[in-house]
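Hi C.,

You asked whether I'd gotten around to modeling the 101-residue construct. I have! Everything is below, sequence then structure, no commentary in between.
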Amino acid sequence: MLLAGLSNYLKPSIRGWRGHETRSLREAAHLARALAEAENLPIGKALAQDGSIADQDGWYAESIQNTIPVYGSRGGAPVSRDLQVRREDFARYVDWLRSVW
């Protein structure tokens, strides 16, 4: 019982990520964009000013796939709603976002 409580305590805390061990890639991308905007991160400001990127959540989804492991079935063409991101991996991605530029 104590170990289960300690395990939950040690899990990374991510604003907007409550309870679930995994999220869809699209949800994780949306959370990443919201975090970058809320924390006024340089990468978020650069993307907001770049008018050529119409789908910022799509940019973050691609960035997540290139930076951390993404899990799920890719049978045939990958569909981002079928791909999953683990909370621990997303926490590493957030650390990366905060370190860029």
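If it helps when you're writing up: Residues 27 and 81 are 8 Å apart (CA to CA).

Thanks,
B.
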